[in-house]
Amino acid sequence: VAKRLEKFQTTIFTQMSLLAIKHEALNLGQGFPNFDGPEFVKEAAIQAIRDGKNQYARGNGVADLNIAIADRFKKDTGLVVDPEKEVTVTTGCTEAIAATIIGLINPGDEVILFAPFYDSYEATLSMAGANIKSITLRPPDFAVPIEELKSTISKNTRAILINTPHNPSGKMFTREELNCIASLCIENDVLVFTDEVYEKLAFDMEHISMATLPGMFERTVTMNSLGKTFSLTGWKIGWTIAPPHLTWGVRQAHSYLTFSTSHPMQWAAAVALRAPDSYYVELKKDYLAKKAILVEGLKEVGFKVFPSSGTYFVVVDHTPFGLENDVAFCEYLVKEVGVVAIPTSVFYLNPEDGKNLVRFTFCKDEQTIRSAIERMKQRL
Length: 380
Ligand code: GLN
What we know:
Elements: H1 12-22, E1 26-27, H2 39-50, H3 63-77, E2 87-91, H4 92-104, E3 110-115, H5 119-127, E4 131-136, H6 146-152, E5 157-163, H7 175-188, E6 191-195, E7 220-225, E8 237-241, H8 244-257, H9 263-273, H10 277-301, E9 304-305, E10 313-317, H11 326-337, E11 339-340, E12 342-343, E13 357-361, H12 366-379
Parallel strand pairs: 1-11, 3-4, 3-5, 5-6, 6-7
Antiparallel strand pairs: 2-8, 7-8, 9-10, 10-13, 12-13
The chain binds glutamine (GLN).
Glutamine (GLN) binds at residues 11, 13, 30-31, 167.
């Protein structure tokens, strides 16, 4: 393997899902729903295949999907964007992240991440030769340490990558935090790459897109996807929204990374994004019920549970159970208890920072969540 990737192992999600199968454990690890997406969206995909939408799609996205994305963004944020010049369809948000980083970051540019961070950020930044700076968000509230951010920004800082609602912590960036980050970015001429794939799973607070803050649209790449909102993580439909001068970089990278994204699925994605508001209301209601079962259950089991305002994840402190660190705890949990969780130390530049924390997901049917809680009550 090339040197730039030597330090990365098989992704933790793959590792833990394999262990789940091996030990026949209940999987509250990898964030994929164990239920299917809506029928009307699946039907639209089948129809598109029958209609012959089976050759390469237009590189930057099927025009109708670009329009549906722009329309949805306007509904959500009030911002009017040009579907032809400012929206790019990618193969999941993971490709949106890669195309953004590879298209806009030069080797040696500094990029600031907030740890814990989703694993692909660090791997992709390494592929691009970026100089990664990480600022640790700490429980219980995972607040942004603004002074530390100020002292980390330098004349070499090219971008700050944010993720709100935040995987794994469930933290949502507050308006105050976003305002502080925005004014530092404007002052220091820094870009923001913002991963908002969990925006429709905002439970306790209003989701705020960085692009809506004054002066920020022109320096922000907003990245999103269909997977979480429509319980279709395997479809890998994502996108970026950015002003033309940034979209140009994203598209150059996208053209040579994947060239274009699955054609029939894009037609279905456009149908999905035109779902009535009631779809989003139901989705949230269902997830709130699941979240309550998991959070109450984890507390009864004896974990210290940190508040999660958004996403389908909850982070807990496992130390009441006396295992050495997060990895040892998760190994014990899968082998002896039959439940899978995700150790968080892989989401930090310094793994020590995550050694007390593990992540559980509630994107599973209620029975699976209840059974996992039962097992933990009996066997932990
Ligand atoms: N985003 C999902 C999670 O955090 C999984 C992504 C993946 O498996 N690479 O669990």
